[in-house]
Amino acid sequence: MRYFYRGGLNCAESTLRCLIEAGVIDAPPEAVRMMTGFGGGMQRGTTCGAVVGAVAALGWATGRTEPGQSREASAWVVREFLRRFEERFGTLDCRTLQAAYVKDHALKSEGMYRRCTVFVETAVELAQEILVTEGEPEKAD
């Protein structure tokens, strides 16, 4: 996780950047910009930024661009990712994750950055597992 914690990118940015660099999705590196506001649970401790970054990557890989296209492939991968992440950690909520896994609970603390690395690593791993190992579902035209 060279981007997260000491690397200067937040959890959402790091997750998307890692998935791009690993070749899991074909998004341009500039797409990481759109994740800046999602770090730290949208800067309010709500949905985990690593989760949001992974969902963005899953959407990039399986999403639609036209209203008439099917949402089924994207809906499946997102539901599966969320199920697995929540199964692993018990929640998708940033503050709850921090309370359970981070000794120093304050957002933006050193403890948060060290401990939240596991959420970024897991989000990247699960998204990659779903898209690469299990194969990306067919997109509808």
Verbal overview:
It is a single chain. This protein has 141 residues and is mainly alpha-helical. Helix content is 58%, strand content 0%. The chain has six helices and no strands. α1 runs parallel beside α3, α1 packs parallel to α6 (110-133) and α3 runs antiparallel to α4.
- Estimated helix fraction: 55-70%
Give the topology string: H per helix, E per strand.
Answer: HHHHHH
Overall pLDDT score: 86
What is the total tally of β strands? 0
User: Strand share of the residues?
Assistant: under 5%
Biggest sheet features:
none
Flag low-confidence runs: none
Shape: globular
What's this entry about, in short?
This protein is mainly α and 141 residues long.
Secondary structure blueprint with pairings:
Layout: H1 11-21, H2 39-45, H3 49-62, H4 72-89, H5 94-101, H6 110-133
Helix pairs in contact: 1-3, 1-6, 3-4, 3-6, 4-6
For the structure shown, list the relevant keywords.
141 residues, mainly alpha, single chain
